[in-house]
Design brief:
Length: about 800
């Protein structure tokens, strides 16, 4: 037949491939061009019938080849090319096809049982897919519940291939058919499909996602899918997978988009890292939906990066909810803001979005529609989260008159609110003050407000709280922060009360192997109190505080007590507290000296002196050693000489000076580390000299001061210089003078250099050092009056100023 060879056969219909039991086909159903059963038969003027698409293509080929339009069967030219639909034939064919498909489905159904051969099952599934596609072309549905159930049974097959083809078939069957979807939703079929998301090979996972995507188009099934344990987390995982094919990822994403119609699914997605749907509903949902999403956002675990994204996306909406008069909306917003405000990045976003003014208003406002205490506690928690990021709050207005968070009026209101509320909110408000006092720019304002409102006594009383650990911790941290600025007031408050000082000591000495933040803060607080406050020191001594502190120091040094975060600050505080006992030696000789002797306190500080990279500990230890050493000359035991015998008493020429062993070169008596705190006996000189090269002048100063105690009036200064020289200490002392890092260091260095230069051979050697001479001349010209006197004396030792040219009198 002319032209028939040009047909490409792309339109196929496997219904013409007869199978046993299939209804007979009529020749009139077959298109002469395609040799397939027709879908849309049309008739030419000569009565010949063809598939519409096929004859139109034939006519187009005639035109392309310059031939007249003709009938493909008769080859006769057509005078009229109109195509008349053969409606009766099309209806007959559709009836036949429906009958034929039903028969074929029945045959396939008979093959769908798990005991059948795999090849038979696969063939049956293939036929079902093809038939369903044909039926869908006719805009009909497969109304065969039994068949749907048989296909779902194939998901239980032990064969990956059968399960895969069953999933493919199921997708075709349920597409656009709500009844079939409802049947699939029966029993555990959806659960089985979800299980395939993680247990099947790649093509099986893709097929499972495709079925879930079709099912998720039904709003009634969205909650069913979401309720299956693991469904949403597996789908979310697929959307972010780098190993899955693009089709699987896209369908998983579309499935989740469909599931968003259920609020519970949205909450599950947020829990599993897909937060955008929740945020979208919070922005665009109904008022009730917004509240629901905000409540859930308040309890959702979020990492810090996500908190920033949430603050940027819905921070403004949450603040708007917080401003409403609806208490439920405000509660939901506060919970969400509390959750996202706990990270510095998100807190800054909220500050810039304007959270502080309504937050402060909610805290302080009293009247109609005021927040209940439980929500004021949440507001205080948010404020505490925000202020602890170290922001410049003195530049952010929070009140109607441009007050800032550190304005005295605002701080006083916070203090007043702290006094008039319960423990839970008190702890949060104190945490706010802790944050404000942690910033150098705002601590002075807070201190001023505390002074003006006489709040120090009430703040100190929180130290005794035993029922609320968070409240007690916040109060101790606050007192620690303000202690450098209010040390006298704090000392008076603690000294004048019964239990607070003991409570702090009890916290510090708590019998634990792990150092807590509270212990570190309590130790830091006591360490900041005036070191020369004798009354406070004696209270601590009588309450046994120093023995407990020594025990803690030893435990930390021996590794029995640990705490990575707070160990350093805790130990620094302990050493500083222990050092204060050395300031009481001259005033309370008996008790303080007895304690230092009994506990061999000098040895402890000598050991601590070698705490490398711990400047504050070395500084406090050197200060303590200076105080101890100053007392040595009063504690050294002067040996009793034996009385002369009879002959010597008569003939003095026969006398010899008695020899006493063990005499200290410096103190000219019997010394020891324990009994007289002697630095020489403790071999401290080398250790102190090593610290003179320290980069921190706060360590160098105390080390120099401790060494200077060996050159005090009333001691053997020459022997003291010799000891320092033997420890190679002369050059480091001269370097301190030359570096001139601080005025206090220069004053101390000039004093020591003058005494060192009393040794003639050292003076000769140093006199040749022009830099030393220049440094002494500079001190002679520019230092304070006393230091100028001492510098002049030093210059005389090296013959730079003649002895007869004394400018000053009464040089001491």
């Amino acid at each position: 037949m002319a032209g028939s060879g040009s047909w490409d056969g792309s339109q196929s219909d496997n219904s013409s491939q007869f199978e046993p039991g299939i209804d007979n086909i009529y020749e009139a159903f077959i298109c002469p061009l395609t040799k397939q059963v027709m879908h849309n038969p049309v008739t030419l003027e000569n009565g010949q019938t063809f598939e519409c698409e096929a004859i139109e293509k034939w006519f187009q080929e005639c035109r392309d080849n310059g031939r007249p339009l003709s009938c493909p069967i008769t080859s006769k030219e057509l005078s009229i090319t109109d195509l008349s639909p053969s409606i009766a034939l099309r209806n007959t064919i559709e009836e036949w096809r429906a009958r034929n498909d039903a028969l074929k489905l029945d045959i396939a159904r008979q093959s769908l049982y798990l005991g059948n051969a795999e090849t038979n099952i696969l063939l049956a599934l293939k036929n079902v897919r093809e038939i369903c596609r044909n039926i869908r072309k006719m805009r009909q549905r497969v109304r065969n519940p039994q068949l749907v159930r048989l296909i779902t049974d194939m998901l239980k097959s032990s064969s990956h291939e059968v399960r895969y083809k069953a999933l493919q078939t199921l997708q075709v069957v349920v597409e656009g058919d709500e009844e079939s979807k409802a049947i699939v939703a029966e029993g555990d079929t959806v659960r089985t499909i979800v299980k395939f998301l993680s247990q099947e090979p790649s093509k099986g996972r893709e097929a499972a996602v495709s079925v879930l995507f079709e099912l998720s188009k039904s709003e009634a099934l969205c909650e069913k899918i979401g309720s299956i344990r693991g469904a949403i987390i597996l789908l979310v995982g697929l959307t972010s997978s780098k190993s899955e094919n693009v089709s699987t990822v896209e369908k998983a994403d579309k499935t989740l988009t469909n599931l968003e119609r259920s609020e519970e699914n949205v909450r599950q997605m947020a829990t599993n890292g897909r937060l955008q749907p929740l945020l979208a509903k919070l922005l665009e949902g109904s008022p009730e939906t917004k509240v629901s999403m905000a409540f859930y956002l308040g309890v959702l675990a979020l990492n810090n990066d996500v908190k920033v994204i949430v603050a940027q996306t819905v921070g403004s909406s949450l603040i708007d909810l917080m401003r409403t008069r609806d208490m439920r909306q405000r509660e939901a917003a506060l919970g969400a803001l509390n959750n996202i405000s706990s990270f510095e990045g998100s807190a800054k976003v909220l500050i810039n979005t304007g959270i502080l003014p309504p937050l402060i208003k909610d805290l302080f406002y009293v009247g109609p529609n005021q927040l209940p205490i439980r929500l004021k506690e949440v507001s205080a928690t948010i404020l505490a989260n925000i202020v602890n990021i170290g922001y410049e709050f003195d530049k952010v207005p929070v009140g109607p008159h441009h007050q800032t968070l550190v304005s005295e009026e605002i701080v006083e209101n916070l203090l007043q609110l702290t006094s008039n509320t319960g423990p839970e909110i008190q702890g949060k408000l104190l945490a706010v003050l802790v944050g404000l006092t942690s910033c150098p720019n705002s601590v002075i304002n807070v201190v001023s407000a505390i002074r003006n409102s006489a709040a120090i006594i009430s703040l100190v009383q929180f130290v005794e709280i035993h029922e609320n650990d968070d409240l007690r911790l916040a109060s101790i941290k606050l007192l620690h922060n303000i202690s450098p600025h209010m040390s006298e007031e704090l000392a008076n408050a603690l000294r004048g009360t019964v239990g607070q000082l003991g409570s702090l000591v009890a916290i510090i000495s708590e019998n634990t192997t792990t150092i807590t933040e509270e212990q570190a803060a309590a130790a830091g607080l006591l360490a900041e109190l005036p070191e020369r406050d004798l009354g406070l020191t004696m209270r601590l001594l009588r309450e046994g505080a120093f023995e407990k502190i020594i025990s803690k120091i030893v435990g930390i040094r021996q590794g029995e007590i640990r705490g990575i975060r707070f160990e350093r600050t805790f130990l620094e505080g302990l050493v500083s507290i222990l050092a204060r006992i050395t300031f009481a030696l001259t005033k309370e000789t008996h008790l303080a000296i007895s304690f230092c002797r009994e506990n061999n306190i000098t040895s402890h500080f000598l050991d601590l002196l070698q705490s490398n990279s711990q400047d504050n500990i070395q500084m406090a230890s050197a200060i303590a050693l200076e105080n101890l050493s100053l007392e040595s000359k009063n504690l050294t035991k002067i040996p009793e000489l034996p009385p002369p015998n009879y002959c010597v008493s008569i003939f003095s020429c026969l006398s010899k000076p008695p020899v006493v062993l063990g005499i200290c070169k410096i103190h000219q008596g019997i010394c020891s580390v324990r009994e007289s705190f002697c630095l020489v006996e403790g071999q401290a000189v080398d250790k102190l000299v090593d610290l003179l090269d320290h980069e921190n002048e706060k360590v160098v100063g105390p080390a120099l001061a401790a060494l200077s105690t060996l050159l005090e009036d009333g001691l053997d200064v020459v022997q003291g210089v010799r000891l320092i020289d033997e420890a190679d200490g002369i050059t480091p002392i001269l370097n301190v003078l030359l570096e001139n890092r601080t005025e206090n260091l220069r004053i101390r260095a000039v004093w020591m250099v003058e005494r060192i230069l009393r040794i003639e051979e050292i003076a000769r050697e140093v006199g040749e050092e022009q830099k030393v001479t220049a440094a002494l001349v500079d001190a002679f010209q520019n230092a304070d009056f006393r230091t100028r006197q001492i510098a002049e004396k030093a210059l005389r030792h090296i013959d730079k100023i003649p002895n007869f040219s004394g400018i000053f009198t009464n040089i001491g």
